[in-house]
Design brief:
Radius of gyration: 29 Å
Order of helices and strands: HHHHEEHHEHH
Distance between the termini: 74 Å
Strand order of the largest sheet: 1-2-3
Strand content: 5-15%
Number of helices: 8
Largest sheet: 3 strands, mixed
């Protein structure tokens, strides 16, 4: 008898990627993907826009018998967010430890650098069509221009300026 192939349920791409990325992040930075994804919940929307966890630095252990020592969370922050995080350090440490489930973080070290992701360009609003008198005035002002490509370019510019100004 031929084997039936079992159909697998679809899995979200985020789950597949996190299984690949999470071990690499943990090894290189000590930060898990969950911490990065949950940063807005931990730090709050206001601070999360201008900061992000960079890495967790664990103290060196000489031997396996050494007692557990909490780590330092390095946070990249911009401008006033660095100052706000500095003032809210105790609360932020408590939130991170609650999120992780144990007292993993003892202190926060701030690194001031650009963090915010540039916003995508906004879609231009549709311009209103010009009234017949405005169109006529624009055409009259450009009538003396001999070059067709230049005249057409200036007409587009004129329509854009007049259509946007008088909203």
């Amino acid at each position: 008898m031929a084997k039936r192939s079992r159909k697998r349920n679809a899995q979200p791409v985020a789950d597949l990627v996190s299984r690949l990325v999470d071990p690499v992040l943990r090894k290189r930075t000590g930060v898990s993907l969950e911490l990065i994804q949950g940063w807005e919940e931990i730090a709050g929307r206001r601070l999360a826009k201008l900061s992000r966890p960079e890495r967790i630095v664990w103290p060196r252990r000489i031997s396996d018998d050494d007692p557990f020592k909490p780590a330092t969370l390095i946070v990249a922050a911009e401008g006033y967010a660095a100052l706000a995080i500095q003032h809210e350090t105790g609360e932020l440490i408590a939130r991170v430890n609650t999120f992780l489930g144990y007292g993993a973080i003892e202190r926060i070290k701030l690194v001031q650098k650009p963090v915010a992701v540039p916003e995508r360009r906004k879609v231009r609003p549709a311009l209103r069509t010009l009234r017949p008198d405005e169109e006529e005035q624009l055409n009259q002002s450009l009538a003396e221009i001999d070059s067709d490509p230049l005249r057409q370019a200036l007409q587009r510019l004129g329509r854009a300026v007049k259509g946007e100004i008088s909203r």
